[in-house]
Write a structure and sequence with these properties.
Layout (H helix, E strand, L loop, with lengths): L24 E3 L6 E3 H6 L15 H8 L5 E4 L17 H12 L5 E8 L2 E8 L10 H17 L3 E7 L7 H20 L4 E10 H4 L8 E4 L5 E2 L3 H8 L10 H6 L5 E2 L2 H16 L1
Parallel strand pairs: 5-6, 6-7, 7-8, 7-9, 8-10
Antiparallel strand pairs: 1-2, 3-4, 4-5
Helix pairs in contact: 4-5
This protein binds zinc ion.
């Protein structure tokens, strides 16, 4: 093995922050305490000291929400065709392949059916580790299918958002998904099937601008970043300093953009109660 020769030949310039999880200990960004990873996992990936909600992947989310962690998945075969043959620092096709290898998913969402406290539900859970949970044609189509499946089977729908917004590598095709999903949700509403939106850290851009804010109830995890444009863009546009906690769950509840902030440990119970009330 050479000491000074780069092995992979390629620098990772994606700039995406990666959480190193291979160690036994994790440093909490909230309180700077060192936490034993096992303690963190047993506490639903919420810091036992300061209650910071760590990001979790789509599979962990589904296992936490659904009874006995059991669920059946759908639409897992959908895969992007790279309609624009987009290239930035590297070809989008290569980015896709890499994300697919890392996550074992074809794109940034898992559609599932399972039971939540005994009640059948359809859940779309977004995967932030897949190109920032961005929404291209595949995420748009998968979520639309979940909405349509909910309408046809008259089953309540839950969408768990974790997304940087529309996927820029698919340009206008990404933007079209906002309208497509919103139209499907309007039909779900006409059919009087409940839809609960769960917003987790982060829920931004085109996802906030479409289905994340369209729930019959919009629930957020504590201190999640939720917004459309980033704070810097807004500050430069309106030439004002933004208040503290702007675009965090608690601020958004106070200003009527979000209905409830619910800690992860109570999320399942709260959604069960909401569905029970909406079904009554
Ligand atoms: Zn902490």
């Amino acid at each position: 093995m050479a000491w000074f020769k780069r092995q992979s030949g390629e620098l990772d310039t994606s700039g995406e922050k990666k959480v190193r999880t291979e160690g036994l200990w994790v440093k909490c960004e909230g309180c700077r305490q060192i936490i034993w990873k096992k303690d963190l996992e047993e506490n639903m990936n919420v810091c036992p000291k300061c209650e910071k909600h760590f990001r979790i992947d789509a599979r962990t989310r589904l296992a936490q929400l659904l009874d006995e962690g059991q669920y059946e998945t759908f639409d897992a075969e959908l895969s992007s065709t790279d309609p624009l043959k987009f290239v930035d620092l590297k070809p989008y096709s290569r980015r896709l392949r890499q994300a697919q290898e890392e996550t074992g998913l074809k794109d940034a969402v898992i559609n599932a059916r399972g039971k939540l406290e005994g009640r059948p539900v359809i859940v779309s859970a977004m995967e932030y580790a897949f190109i920032g949970g961005s929404m291209g044609a595949v995420v748009g189509e998968a979520i639309t299918r979940a909405v349509e499946r909910a309408a046809e089977s008259r089953t309540p729908l839950i969408i768990v958002s974790a997304s940087g917004g529309a996927r820029m590598m698919e340009g206008v095709v990404s933007l079209m998904q906002l309208a497509k999903i919103s139209a499907a949700l309007a039909r779900l509403d006409q059919a009087k099937i409940p839809y609960v939106s769960l917003m987790t850290d982060p829920t931004t851009g085109g996802v906030t601008a479409s289905f994340a804010m369209l729930g019959d109830l919009n629930i957020a995890e504590p201190k999640a970043l939720i917004g459309f444009a980033g704070p810097r863009v807004i500050e430069q546009t309106i030439r004002q300093t933004l208040p503290e906690g702007f675009q965090r769950s608690e601020f958004l509840v106070d200003h009527g953009f979000v209905d409830l902030v619910v800690p992860r440990a109570q999320l399942k119970g709260t959604v069960a109660t909401v569905l029970k009330l909406l079904a009554a």
